[in-house]
């Protein structure tokens, strides 16, 4: 189980870092094995910052992150390496995760060198073949190729396969399908569904509410760095109680409606106030359904 407890993040911004921007405010979430938790919200609401803190790519300003009860924030190199055996990330642009001058499968060799130096090459190749088949890739079609010879979907699956070589518990998936075409998207989404069935916990960061609805059991809606609504995806999406959630859901284009049919005016929202004060607390309005400031 991965838990974020009252996590805050402020970045230094402005000339010479003279100001601070609070990007994440008092966020507490958890991801259990075998479930997908979606984090949704408008651009700039703090979603990626949460993923980066979980992946220790940026520090936590206040609060803590725990894996199976142990605090993993601010620990040394060895502890961080051990953490990465359990928690890995895959990001939006698969091409940027590869060095174009090397063959794409070099990412697997890097895992062996770093984590399993004692494993012989032949055994390692067999493991790589296994995980590739596990993400529904034909090893013969992808091994030995350069990144530009593979599709975005293949590259994204290879990154997921790399994470699986480490026997991870939690995968942070940050907009991993937004750059893929519709048919590849559904393949990668279904793959996440299969991994979930096998016990992986997935933190699924997206601005696409339909994807969140498709893949996740629970959802967290963020605005201005804070959680405004959270709970079982079915409840939050069918009965949104926060005006921001209602606006967000109303803004999803519907297949059966034209833009010109849209008549609803967005609801008025509180302006972005002082981000350094704690956000309104979440209240349980129904079983597995929490809303801020009610
Ligand atoms: N390294 C950084 N330094 C300073 N400010 C940052 C940094 N990274 C993010 N921010 C700011 O923090 C806020 C939250 O950004 P974040 O990327 O977490 O949002 P997001 O919800 O993931 O947005 P998007 O959907 O556009 O990716 C934004 O105001 C952003 O400008």
Compile the SSE list and pairings.
Blueprint: E1 2-13, E2 19-31, E3 36-41, H1 47-54, E4 62-67, E5 70-71, H2 77-86, E6 87-90, H3 106-115, H4 121-134, H5 139-142, H6 152-165, E7 170-174, H7 182-197, E8 201-205, H8 209-215, E9 218-223, E10 226-232, H9 233-238, H10 243-250, E11 282-286, E12 289-292
Parallel strand pairs: 3-8, 3-9, 6-7, 7-8
Antiparallel strand pairs: 1-2, 1-4, 4-5, 9-10, 10-12, 11-12
Helix pairs in contact: 4-6
Residues 11, 13, 21, 23, 41, 43-49, 207 line the site of adenosine-5'-triphosphate.
List keywords for this structure.
10 helices, alpha/beta, binds adenosine-5'-triphosphate, four-stranded antiparallel beta sheet, Rossmann fold, 294 residues, 12 strands, eight-stranded mixed beta sheet
Question: What features would you describe in this structure?
Answer:
39% of the residues are buried. The radius of gyration is 20 Å and the shape is globular. The chain has a single domain, classed as P-loop containing nucleotide triphosphate hydrolases (Rossmann fold), CATH 3.40.50.300. Helix 4 (121-134) crosses helix 6. The chain is built from ten helices and twelve strands. It has 294 residues and is α/β, with parallel strands linked by helices. Helix content is 33%, strand content 26%. Bound molecules: adenosine-5'-triphosphate. Adenosine-5'-triphosphate is lined by residues 11, 13, 21, 23, 41, 43-49, 207.
Give the strand order of the largest sheet, numbering strands 1, 2, ... along the chain: 6-7-8-3-9-10-12-11
Classification by helices and strands:
alpha/beta
* Number of distinct helices: 10
Mean pLDDT: 90
CATH architecture: 3-Layer(aba) Sandwich
CATH class: Alpha Beta
């Amino acid at each position: 189980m991965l838990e974020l407890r009252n996590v805050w993040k402020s970045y230094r911004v402005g000339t010479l870092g003279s100001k601070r921007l609070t990007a994440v405010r008092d966020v507490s979430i958890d991801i259990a094995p075998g479930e997908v938790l979606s984090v949704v919200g408008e651009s700039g609401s703090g979603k990626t910052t949460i993923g980066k803190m979980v992946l220790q790519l940026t520090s936590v300003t206040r609060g803590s992150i725990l894996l199976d009860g142990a605090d993993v924030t601010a620990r040394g190199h060895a502890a961080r390496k051990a953490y990465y055996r359990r928690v890995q990330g895959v990001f939006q642009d698969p091409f940027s995760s590869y060095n174009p001058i090397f063959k794409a499968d070099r990412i697997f060799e890097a895992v062996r060198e770093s984590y399993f130096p004692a494993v012989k090459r032949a055994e390692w190749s067999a493991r790589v073949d296994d995980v590739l088949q596990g993400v529904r890739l034909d090893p013969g079609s992808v091994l030995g190729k350069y990144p530009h010879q593979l599709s975005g979907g293949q590259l994204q699956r290879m990154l997921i396969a790399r994470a699986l070589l480490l026997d991870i518990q939690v995968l942070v998936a940050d907009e991993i399908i937004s750059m893929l075409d519709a048919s590849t998207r559904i393949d990668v989404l279904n793959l996440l569904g299969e991994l979930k069935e096998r016990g992986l916990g997935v933190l699924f960061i997206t601005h696409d509410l339909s994807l969140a609805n498709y893949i996740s059991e629970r959802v967290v809606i963020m605005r201005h760095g804070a959680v405004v609504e959270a709970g079982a995806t079915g409840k939050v999406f069918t009965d949104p109680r926060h005006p921001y959630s209602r606006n967000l859901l109303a803004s999803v284009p519907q297949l059966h409606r034209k833009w010109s049919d849209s008549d609803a005016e967005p609801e008025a929202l509180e302006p972005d106030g002082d981000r350094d004060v704690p956000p309104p607390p979440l209240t349980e309005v129904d079983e597995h359904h929490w809303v801020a400031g009610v």
